[in-house]
Amino acid sequence: MRPLKKIIDLAALRHNWQVLQAQAPQARIMAVVKANAYGHDALSVAQALADVAPCYAVACSEEAVALRAAGLRQAIVLLEGIFSPEEIALCAEQDLQPVIHHQRQLDWLAAAQTPLKAWLKIDSGMHRLGFAAAESEALFAQALCMPYVDWQGVVSHFACADSEDLAHAEGQLAQLQHLQLPDTWQRSYANSAAIFRLPAAQGEWLRAGIMLYGLSPFEDSCGADFGLQAVMTLQTEILATHYLSQGESAGYAQGFIAPSEGYLATIAIGYGDGWARRIESGKVPVLIEGRRYYLVGLVTMDMALIWLGAENYPAGTAVELFGKQLAAEEVAAAAETIPYTLSTMLTPRVRLEVRHG
Ligand SMILES: *Cc1c(COP(=O)(O)O)cnc(C)c1O
């Protein structure tokens, strides 16, 4: 068996849930498990939280149906809503709550008159999805004329809640605080970053993604700074090492030139596993027996290279790419990306090992 695997620590996930809940004890949390739970395996994650999470959030009905098929009974919110009127019957049948963000979706609901639960999305400044906050009065009036829809409330999303400068986020929050919501409607405004940085945005429902997985959405901090634990460890092994003399090249396009004589290790991970080809800058660390080494040369489809210098390790030695010992935030920063992408982009070829803790 190829040694590359993502090890998922469900005890860490449950710990993170408690940390988030303690941050907002009065609110309820939607566990955001879209995109296969950011690569952490949506079914394992959803099942591990089933006794504490009142609700899951996914991007689309396909992701929700997979949770229902596994027997999960919680509320499920569809963050992108529905993509065609045919999905209305599916939402009703599977008890899914689409986020309605566009007039054409409202028109589909009006034409179908199918009883279902749904949310309305207000665009308070992200300008990605949602109805303009300025038109909310007419929108709410229109919504209330649709008695077959059991409106749960309003969703909005912050563009910059992770930023040092909260001026933009506070501007969004001010717009949201001006909404005249019908009495029974609930508010869901905060993502992970806002839960910590904008407590005034907490409302009735939080939507927690990245921090549930133990990672920080903020630059210059790690999940551990918030008491969170990394849920995923990405681990592989050394397949071979080669001794190079100074100036000798290695890999496609002679992508690496040995700066001195020393050992070069080949490890099992490549862009076929979702390890982006540009993650080879010579600045991106890996961990071997507690010591940092750096990826060098060009990442290929199945393999990548590490410069060991004077050290050597036998084939089969474990290499951590990120996780428990080496923070994904540090690796992401070195790779000029964000930690969200490192776990989410992994392909199905990466073996899943779930630890129940
Ligand atoms: C992905 C997503 C979230 C979760 O965001 P995190 O930063 O991972 O906590 C919340 N709300 C919406 C609308 C999303 O698309």
From TrEMBL:
Question: Which cofactors does the annotated protein need, by name?
Answer: pyridoxal 5'-phosphate
Q: Which GO terms describe its biological process?
A: D-alanine biosynthetic process
* Residues the record lists as binding substrate: 128, 301
| PANTHER family in the cross-refs | ALANINE RACEMASE, ALANINE RACEMASE, CATABOLIC-RELATED
Write down the chemical reaction(s) this protein catalyses. Answer: L-alanine = D-alanine
Q: What is this protein called?
A: Alanine racemase
Is the keyword Nuclease assigned to this protein?
A: no
Please name the InterPro entries in this protein's record.
Ala_racemase (IPR000821), Ala_racemase/Decarboxylase_C (IPR009006), Ala_racemase_C (IPR011079), Ala_racemase_N (IPR001608), Ala_racemase_pyridoxalP-BS (IPR020622), PLP-binding_barrel (IPR029066)
Give UniProt keywords alphabetically.
Isomerase, Pyridoxal phosphate
Alphabetical list of PROSITE patterns matching this protein: ALANINE_RACEMASE (PS00395)
Pathway linked to the protein: Amino-acid biosynthesis; D-alanine biosynthesis; D-alanine from L-alanine: step 1/1
Chain's role:
Catalyzes the interconversion of L-alanine and D-alanine. May also act on other amino acids.
Write down the EC number. 5.1.1.1
* Catalytic residue positions: 34 (proton acceptor), 252 (proton acceptor)
Q: Which residues carry this modification: N6-(pyridoxal phosphate)lysine?
A: 34
Q: Does the keyword Isomerase apply?
A: yes
Q: Write out the similarity annotation.
A: Belongs to the alanine racemase family.
Q: Where is the Alanine racemase C-terminal domain?
A: 231-355
Membrane-spanning intervals of the chain: none
Spell out the GO cellular component terms annotated for this protein, sorted alphabetically and separated by semicolons. cytosol
Q: Please give the organism.
A: Suttonella indologenes
Any GO molecular function: alanine racemase activity
A Pfam family (short name) is: Ala_racemase_C
